[in-house]
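Person: I have long wanted to understand how a fold can be written as tokens. Underneath my words sits a plain record pairing an amino acid chain with its backbone structure tokens. Those tokens are not coordinates but codes from a learned vocabulary of shapes. I should like you to check that the lines agree and flag anything odd. The protein I mean follows directly.
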Amino acid sequence: MRVSNGLLTLLLAAAGGRAQVLAPEEIRDPQLRALQQKYRNELKLIANSPAAHNFPYHFYFSRKLDLDEKVQKRSDQRSVQFDRYQGQVVVKVTGNYFVSYSAELVKPEERARMTYESVILPLLQAAVHAFEKAEAPQAFAFEISHHVRKKVLGVSSESVENVVLVLPKAPAERLVASADPQVRQAAVLEGGAFLNAAPISFWPRPQKEMVQEAAAETPAPATPQAPPPAAPPALTVSEDLMKAIGFPHVAAQRVREPLAQELPPPRASSAEAIKNLENLFQSTLDRLVQELDAQAHFIQYAPPAFIPFHNGLYLELSLTTTLPPTSSGSEYRLAALAFDQHIAHLIRPVIAHFKDSSDFDGIDFSTTVKLAPDAADTSPVAVEFIFPLKLLSAYADFDATGQQLIEASFILINGERVSLDLQVAEADRSPR
């Protein structure tokens, strides 16, 4: 039987929609599970909507944020589901948007707004149309990650930001029904917008307006004064700004070249090269373990060893971090507390053993984080803090903060790379 191209497209879209809607039986809450079953066709309309929309860069529904695109393609993309937010029943959509903004040229509010306009808005329109005749939900919630390029201590790095919009159903319907930009902006302001868990406005008040307001509240001077300098023009989405945006994994070479020039040349990572390096540092490693074992809690069956990573060689230190029972919370919270209470205190004594070393590229503090035995949740979390030597030296010399060190390095939780904001993560007491 022959299938026409149009029918084949519809069949593929329908199959994709099913794959991106969470199965009802995976939802524990009975009410939410019933809604997931009742409105499965409406949820599929949201999941199918990207097939009819041309996103500027690759977008994927995803159960997890902050994934490498290669990992994303084979990861679970069932992320369209009913959930709860502050007592309200919401339709929640999460996904990864593989755009990379320049931190120097694009301000945080502008990055959040551009991701809203490029991804969240078309998904919101599809969601409103899908549920326009339904009693549920009370609101729509979107969490979309994007990438940001910046330099920390002269080292190019790329981190991930999460943009969240939670919008009640009524203003969402007004937004979709109106073509007036002011009406649409006012509708968004009735909800909540966040960037990495911090409240944010997609449309901050113009600087000129704030200057005029401040001037109106200030008494007029007795003598004439020179007028204040004009406020700089607001940065708009111009051709120059668009050039500042790069796609992190398939971008043109103009984005990759500066980073490649600053990276050290690839090292030989053969078994022989690693063995030679271990022989060179064996006495140093033995002394390191002997001096720091009481503080570091090295895993006895996994002695320090050199491993290949990112075209370089890193020293892997396998540790155990035990936190008090009061530290329970999300995996991000445990990782942040592990850094502040354990790893950060090891950096200076460890790096002192490798002062000015250029024989390898960095240190991987690989720790198993667990709570004290009497805690309710004792399941461990595997966290790796993979730091370049140059940044470790800057931190040891008090030229960088712990947050700067983390942002320019690699943090893995249970094998997945994540971005880690210490202050935000340590405040997150939500259960795992």
User: Anything to note?
Assistant: Residues 197 and 424 are 7 Å apart (CA to CA).
